[in-house]
Amino acid sequence: MTTTSERNVTGTSFTRGLGIVTLLGIVLLVVLGLFVSPADVNQGESVRIMYAHVPGAWLAYLAFVVTGISSAAYLWKRTRSLTWDRIAGASAEVGVLFMGISLVTGSLWGRITWGTYWTWDARLTTTAFLFVTYVGYLAVRGLGGSHHQRARRSAVLALLAVLEIPLVHFSVRLWNTLHQEASVAGRGTDVTMDGLMLFSLFLGVIVFTLMYVWLVLHRQRALALQDMVEDSGLDAALAARRAEAVV
Amino acid sequence: MAHDLPVELSDAVAVLGAFPVLAGANLTVQRGEIVLLRGPNGAGKTTLLRLCAGLIELERGRGRVLGHDLSTDRWAVRHRVGLLGHANGLYPDLTVTENVAFWGRTVGASDAEIAAALKRMALDGRLAEVQVSRLSAGQRRRTALAALVARRAELWLLDEPHAGLDAAGRDELDEVLRQAARAGATIMVASHELERAGTLATRQVEVVAGQVRDLGATS
Amino acid sequence: MSETRRAFASVRATARLIAVKDLRIERRGRVLTNQVLPFALIVMVMFAFALDSDAVLERVAPGLVWLATLFSTLFVIARSFAVESSDGALDQLRTSGAPSAGIFLGKALALMVQLLVLVVVLVAAAVVLYRADISWQGGVLLVTTALAATCGLAAVGTLYGGLSAGAKGRETLLPLLVLPVVAPVLIGATRATESAFGTNGIAVGEGWPWLGLLVVFAVLFSVTGAIAFGSLLDE
């Protein structure tokens, strides 16, 4: 089996297969979600945003968990490998994307249904914090240094985020119990789920997860190639440097 | 272990960003030696010292400092070396005594040892209670060296330590270094002061374009 | 002495050494008293200009106190590490033999003391500017809240300060990294302070759960910080 580095592309037969399945899934989701499944009794057509918002939110948290686990795997001596670091980074990048999608769709949904772009319920606020925290994480990944320095720094940061996010969620929830307005934000629970709607939602979660896996696999390999380019650049630079001494 | 060499570098490569500052350095230093690192600016002397201090990563090649492998264990090295770079590592708002005492106490030095270090660098007189920000560059250098003395490192890594010192100060520094070497410390000095080669160093090496050339023992 | 006992003693000794050093530098340099406090007070005045209503100000006084504290904390953290990187002391700390947990606890302790001074002054300013009112029972709550909140802020600040210390282009990361993490402190401290002030008729008793949150936060980040600081301090 040729490795990614030997072929200089990030696709394998596995990802190609996965990609096709995902694409088909997306098509099916679009058809079901946007056309075939019924509109909601209360919300009308706007409930269809749910098929993008809920999976997006699910993925934001999945990405967060994956980054956390990969970071821990990198830090633990026995499993230390830059692959874990790249998975953490790729997951964070893809995660930030889905966090953004979740926040935007959630905001729009709220606007259409309840007239407000934003409420301070715990889930939405925590997602916003997750988003900002990961923007910071990605900024720190870009600070430079050797591959291992980057990996160690980011891994510690990711684990700190694992500590921080539940704390944020808990405090916002505690905070919300003070404010009666929060009960209005029972979004998602207001929707009485028809069988087909439930199925479409489920499909959405699965399709988005497949999309996530596909994106992370590719991105992780691209990062590996990027690291390799840097390393091979080193060989040329070394040769040039050594030549200086001969003169 | 008693027979561990203080420094053993074999084809060591260290990078700054993407640039290989050290491009395959080979160096072995025996205990008690005072090695002078010569070479043009940009040759990699500072990086070599920082590598031996365990502060930067060994990108390629092999390196052992004080028995610790630089690839896997460089954090353990740090606490056994004393590094003096271009900066002095002092706190400008604190006095000379406070600075030396602080650094000495990080390794648990006693008051007597701290006083001795100050005396060694002639800082126990009127300068003792002066804030570092009010000192001249040479006096700050001496304070930094006193702090180094107080820390009783096994391997001393000095980057241009003579800079800013007057002639008396330089001789005094050399005497301090010789004394430390006699007491068992190993010393590496990067310097442009080539006269020191004869009087101070036991061996010289030249660092050029990231590599090391042994110039042999000084006569 | 056993290995662990000796390690703990070393951490404690280092922490004390570094905390004393940092506070002594602050006493000499007077950055907190001459620069940060005036900044914080001006922020409090600016809030009054922006909000333009005595009734509103009295209601939100607790929140403003902690907001001003948060913003000022960023400066105090930056200063704490600027002191280390101005003359290469950071490298000396790395090669010093001092355990990194000790360095963390020492700097965090010094930071906490400075933040406490800040909070005391700002609470006094709130009483004066926003006509807030404290009862005696509220006072106890306020003191414990200040201790727990500043401890949490100091732990987080030292941790991320260590990360952003040194290299150029990193100091600007500090606010982005710190502010999201300390949101629970802002929420908890503000609610507890509201109870202490009796704002909006909130009883003092309602503040204690928030104090619990602050204590948990402080403990979690102090312990995690002591463990993680070494890796972040590295270049």
Overview features:
heterotrimer, A: 247 residues, mainly alpha, 7 helices, 77% helix, 0% strand, B: 219 residues, alpha/beta, Rossmann fold, 2 domains, 6-stranded mixed sheet, 4-stranded antiparallel sheet, 31% helix, 28% strand, globular
Write the layout of secondary structure elements.
The complex is a heterotrimer of chains A (247), B (219) and C (235).
Chain A: H1 4-7, H2 13-36, H3 50-75, H4 82-114, H5 122-141, H6 147-176, H7 195-246
Helix pairs in contact in A: 2-7, 3-4, 3-6, 3-7, 4-5, 4-6, 4-7, 5-6
Chain B: E1 7-16, E2 19-29, E3 34-38, H1 45-52, E4 60-65, E5 68-69, H2 74-78, E6 81-84, H3 96-105, H4 111-120, H5 137-150, E7 155-159, H6 167-182, E8 186-190, H7 196-199, E9 203-208, E10 211-217
Parallel strand pairs in B: 3-8, 3-9, 6-7, 7-8
Antiparallel strand pairs in B: 1-2, 1-4, 4-5, 9-10
Helix pairs in contact in B: 3-4, 3-5, 4-5, 5-6
Chain C: H1 3-29, H2 31-51, H3 54-85, H4 89-94, H5 100-129, H6 136-164, H7 173-181, H8 183-197, H9 208-233
Walk me through this protein's architecture:
- The complex is a heterotrimer of chains A (247), B (219) and C (235).
- Chain A has one domain.
- Helix content of chain A is 77%, strand content 0%.
- The radius of gyration of chain A is 22 Å and the shape is globular.
- The termini of chain A are far apart.
- Chain B folds into two domains: 147 residues, Rossmann fold; 64 residues, no CATH class.
- Chain B contains seven helices and ten strands.
- The two termini of chain B are 30 Å apart.
- By secondary structure, chain C is mainly α.
- Chain C starts with a helix and ends with a helix.
- At the A-C interface, helix 5 and helix 6 of A face helix 7, helix 8 and helix 9 of C.
Topology order of chain C in helix (H) and strand (E) letters: HHHHHHHHH
CATH architecture type of the largest domain in chain B: 3-Layer(aba) Sandwich
Per DSSP E runs of 2 or more residues, the count of β-strands of chain B stands at 10
Shape of chain B: globular
| Poorly predicted spans of chain C | none
> What is the CATH C level class of the largest domain in chain B, in words?
Alpha Beta
Instruction: Tell me, briefly, the overall form of chain C.
Output: globular
Give helix % range of chain C: over 70%
Enter the CATH topology name of the largest domain in chain B.
Rossmann fold
Which chain pair shows the most residues in contact? A-C, 26 and 28 residues
Secondary structure: number of strands of chain C? 0
Would you tell me the structural class of the helices and strands of chain B?
alpha/beta
CATH superfamily of the largest domain in chain B: P-loop containing nucleotide triphosphate hydrolases
Unreliable stretches of chain B (pLDDT < 50, length at least 5) are none
Specify the biggest β-sheet of chain C. none
